[in-house]
């Protein structure tokens, strides 16, 4: 086996162990003075094998939710006693953007004839676009789709696991919310409009929160309600995962 093949096997085994939550294999072939630059803080890196070990239990808990950790590509360059490798990996939930890949660089040193990881650098590209225009566009599109009574279009930006606290009850799942919307449209056989003037939107990473006062006109009667909505960015765009609608108590 060449050095490049040995390093490739080492990294492939490490990736498999991460996905399986096998801590012993994850730690194997790592130097005691390892330095890791990880996605979360600390900004000056995780230093030492004990500190490296402590980063994994929380990640493994997240993995149990059905997340993937798998190689997309791997390149290895090896000298006589120093080597490096760089890779792209899928590190995501099933509904996350599949094009957003984890970047990995590994530095290795040969110790007593065995390749040992001395440095890891994990990162995602900083590709966050402002969420406000996309969320505002969804709210505006809901107005157009409400006026057109297009129930399928109204449902498109709603997540399958949405939880909605409506005026008249709590609803879990997209089918339940669809029934609520269908019933609302049916109560107004004439003209119906939905507008959200000047919504506020705050976002960080793949989550966004919007709050507003909604205006609904049904057959000439206008009502307003308070709304807080939470969106998650997925590979299919922003999806509503929670909303809370209410009237003030009189």
From TrEMBL:
Gene Ontology molecular function, alphabetical: isomerase activity
InterPro entries recorded: NTF2-like_dom_sf, SnoaL-like
Parts forming coiled coils: none
Domain SnoaL-like residue range list: 7-125, 135-249
Keyword Isomerase: yes
Keywords from the named record: Isomerase
Highest taxon listed in the record's lineage: Bacteria
Name the record gives this protein: Ketosteroid isomerase-like protein
Annotated source species: Kribbella shirazensis
